[in-house]
Amino acid sequence: MPLTDRINLGLELGARPTFTDYLDDVSGTYVSYPELLSGNGELAAALGNRTGELTENGEPVIVPTGTQRGDSAKKDWYFILGVTASYNFLDNGLMGSRRRGGRRPGCYD
Questions:
Q1: What is the DSSP pairing of strand 77-87 with strand 7-17?
Q2: Buried b vs exposed e over 31-56: b needs ≥16 C-beta within 10 Å?
Q3: Reported confidence tier of residue 47, pLDDT bands at 50, 70, 90
Q4: How many other CB atoms sit within 10 Å of the CB of residue 59?
Q5: pTM to 2 decimal places
Q6: What is the DSSP string of 20-58?
Q7: Which residue from 21, 23, 22, 45 is spatially nearest to 35, judged by alpha carbons?
């Protein structure tokens, strides 16, 4: 949207479906903390269920293997927001500042 003959502003908002439920890594079922720890190490176990990070003590929340994790029936979406500003170095005539009457140099009929 032109604000003046030289300054423009733009705004874009978009919602995009992903057709997958794994964009946020919350789908399917959990694997228990002890099972992940013994089979894949401390990092995998810590990332397997991050619910404990929301508690005061930060201790891992241990749930049995097979516990529902998220809702696999609903697919993920993501949203974007963009703001742009631009400056026109040449007169583009969008706001009517260009003189419409008379001949311009270099234009012939």
A1: antiparallel
A2: bbbeebbeeeeeeebeebbeeeeeee
A3: confident
A4: 9
A5: 0.49
A6: -S-SSS--SB---HHHHHHHH-HHHHHHH-GGGGGSSS-
A7: 45
- Which position has the higher pLDDT, 65 or 99? 65
- Hey, what are 96's tokens? 């009517």
Domain ranges for the chain: 1-24+72-96, 29-69
Q: Which residues pair with 85 in a beta bridge?
A: 9
Q: CA 20 → CA 14, 69, 72, 103, distances in Å?
A: 18, 15, 9, 60
Residue 9's pLDDT is 95
For residue 71, report the phi and psi dihedrals to the nearest 5 degrees.
-125, 100
With residues binned 3-state (H G I as helix, E B as strand, rest as coil), the percentages for the chain, rounded to 5, are 20, 25, 60
* 67 three-state secondary structure: coil
8 Å CB contact between 35 and 65:
yes
Q: What is the pLDDT of residue 105?
A: 61
Residue corresponding to tokens 């003189």: 99
